[in-house]
Design goal:
The protein is built from ten helices and 14 strands. By secondary structure, the protein is α/β, with parallel strands linked by helices. Helix 1 links the parallel strand 3 and strand 4. The structure holds flavin mononucleotide. Its cofactor is FMN.
C-alpha cells in the first residue's frame, strides 16, 4: 500500500526522518530505522567540523520550536565513519546525506568523499540561521542555487541530488525551477521558517544565545503546504514535503498537495520515534478504507479535482 520506488530507492513507506533531528549518530539513526521510518536524512555536515552556536539553541513555542543549532556537525571524516556504520540498514531503509558548504567546490568535495555510503544527497542551501555564506544565503538566490546544483551534478554522476529549499523567499517556484534546470533529481520543501525570536518576559533577554532561530513544527505546516502545492505546479521532479507533520492527516495533506515523499522533524520530539509506525498504520488504513490501491494514487490529488 505505501511502497514506492523513487530515485532508485525502494521504500517501504514515504516517511523519512528529517535532517537535524536524531540524525547525528549512527545508533540514533538505526533506532529511527527500527522504529519504522521509510528512510533517513542525516544531520547536515560539511568538510570541517562546526561547533554551531552556544546553548540555549532550542526553545519550545506554541505549535513548535525555534532553533539556532547553527549547523553544528563533526566534519566529513567523522561523518564518513557514521555513514559506513549505517550500511547494514540501507537495503531496507535508504540513507540520504544532508550536506552543506559555502562554495561549489566544498559541496562537491563533501559529496565525493561520502558518495559510496549513501543513497542520495540532500543539499542544504536553506538553513535560516547558518553563518553568512552558507545555508539560505545560497537558497534565496536562484543563480547561486543553480550554480551549486549544476556543479555537484557535474561531479557526482550516480547518486541522486535533492535540493532542500527555504520558504523565506518571495517566490519559491523561482528557486525550485533554478534547481530543476540545474539538474536536481528532487526537491525538499521546506527548511525552517523565519528566523524568529522569543524573549524571556522576566529578564527581557532573547532566549536563544544566537537571538534568532528557525521556526519549525505544526505551526509552519500551512506555509510548507503552500510551498509544495505551488512547486508541484511548476516542476516535474519529485517533491519531499516537510514542515509540521504530526499525524496521518497532515501526511495526507502533503500528499494531496503533491509531495511524493515526506519528512518528519519536530514532531518526533513530542511523539517519540513511534510516530513513524503510528502514521504509516493510520495512513494505510485510511487509503484502504477509501478504496485506494496505492499511495501513489493520491499524490497531487488536490490539483486534479476540477
Ligand atoms: C533542532 C533542529 C535541527 C535542524 N537541523 C537541520 C539540519 O541540520 N539540516 C537541515 O537541512 N534542516 C534542519 N532542520 C530543519 C528540519 O529538517 C525541517 O526542515 C524543519 O524542522 C521543518 O520540519 P518539522 O516541522 O517537521 O520539524 C532542523 C530543525 C530542527 C528543529
Amino acid at each position: 500500500m505505501l511502497e514506492q520506488e523513487i530515485l532508485g530507492m525502494k521504500l517501504s513507506n514515504p516517511l523519512f526522518l528529517a535532517a537535524g533531528i536524531l540524525g547525528t549518530t549512527a545508533s540514533s539513526m538505526k533506532m529511527v530505522a527500527r522504529a519504522g521510518a521509510g528512510g533517513i536524512v542525516t544531520k547536515s555536515f560539511s568538510i570541517e567540523a562546526n561547533d554551531g552556536y552556544d546553548n540555549p539553541t532550542i526553545v519550545k513555542i506554541e505549535g513548535g520550536v525555534i532553533n539556532s543549532v547553527g549547523l553544528a556537525s563533526p566534519g566529513v571524516e567523522a561523518k564518513k565513519e557514521e555513514l559506513k556504520d549505517l550500511n547494514e540498514i540501507r537495503d531496507k531503509t535508504p540513507v540520504i546525506a544532508s550536506i552543506y558548504g559555502d562554495s561549489e567546490e566544498v559541496f562537491s568535495d563533501v559529496a565525493n568523499q561520502t558518495k559510496d555510503y549513501v543513497d542520495a544527497f540532500e543539499l542544504n542551501v536553506s538553513c535560516p540561521h547558518a553563518k553568512c555564506g552558507f545555508g539560505s544565503n545560497i537558497g534565496e538566490n536562484p543563480e547561486l542555487t543553480h550554480d551549486i546544483v549544476s556543479s555537484v551534478k557535474d561531479n557526482i554522476k550516480d547518486v541522486p541530488i535533492i535540493v532542500k529549499l527555504t520558504p523565506n523567499v518571495t517566490d519559491i517556484t523561482e528557486i525550485a525551477k533554478a534547481a530543476e534546470d540545474a539538474g536536481a533529481d528532487a526537491l525538499t520543501l521546506i527548511n525552517s521558517v523565519g528566523p524568529g525570536l522569543r524573549i524571556d518576559y522576566k529578564t527581557a533577554r532573547p532566549i536563544l544565545n544566537n537571538v534568532f532561530g528557525g521556526i519549525a513544527g505544526p505551526m509552519i505546516k500551512p506555509i510548507a503546504l503552500k510551498c509544495v502545492y505551488k512547486t508541484y505546479e511548476t516542476v516535474d521532479i519529485p517533491l519531499f514535503g516537510v514542515g509540521g507533520i504530526r499525524t496521518y492527516k497532515d501526511a495526507l495533506e502533503f500528499l494531496y498537495a503533491g509531495a511524493s515523499l515526506l519528512q518528519i522533524g519536530t514532531s518526533i520530539m513530542y511523539e517519540g520515534p513511534e510516530i513513524f509506525k503510528n502514521i504509516t498504520h493510520d495512513l494505510s488504513n485510511f487509503l484502504e478504507e477509501n478504496g485506494y490501491k496505492n499511495v501513489e494514487e493520491i499524490i497531487g490529488l488536490s490539483h486534479n479535482l476540477g
